[in-house]
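Dear colleagues,

As part of the handover before I leave the project, I'm documenting each prediction I ran so the next person doesn't have to rerun anything. This entry is a single chain, and its sequence is reproduced below.
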Amino acid sequence: MGGTTEASLLAVAVARAGLAATLSYAGRVADPRPQPVPTRIGGFGGVDGLLRYLRDHRITHLIDATHPFAAQMSHHAVLAATQTGTPLIALQRPPWQTGRTDRWVSVPDIPAAVAALHGPPQNVFLAIGRQHLAPFAAQPQHHYILRLVDPPDALPLPRCTAVIARGPFAEADDIDLLKAYEIDTIIAKNAGGSGAEAKLIAARHLGLPVILIDRPALPERRVTDSIEGVMTWLHAAPRGV
């Protein structure tokens, strides 16, 4: 179960090891990158659908390498793995940690991030993907700069500009972007990893404030933060039933 940079790196490692594997995408991106293992795109249809998939395809090991904010999918994976007896591990990158000169404010969720924007108009770099844009219409005084992978059909914000780009991003490019759009504030999810960290490094360089949304609560499961950890587990974990 992928959709992250780490999942793509893991697919390469699994293919090199000669293991039979399928990488599953949720379908959030219209044109995902080619992978060295077979891929499927689309949801499973809840826990029952994932249960059927694991049984029908005789899956012996399940890896949750989804985005840290894909909490529902992670919960479904734990339930399905428990009911089928399928060994499960999560590849979970550590969250970002604030530095001495960072101007970060942590908020628990999207509504809190919206509330934090109360005040006079600003240019806001809204780097949270396209799934949770609508709530920010409650603060219509701002001009929102959105960075999206795919061109949107429509946008729910009255004043916004979409920048179409696919990570990983470079620090110099993000400094140029923040300067070009005269960004006052950045809003981002604390996803961790290196693929999207450039905006935070750029904010540090420019002295810009960042509103960072905390990760949702995730279920207890075996977790590793490295490709090597997953590969070691794959060779050691017993087969499911």
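The chain has two domains: 5-93+218-236, 103-213. Residues 71-84 form the longest helix (14 residues).

All the best with the project,
I.
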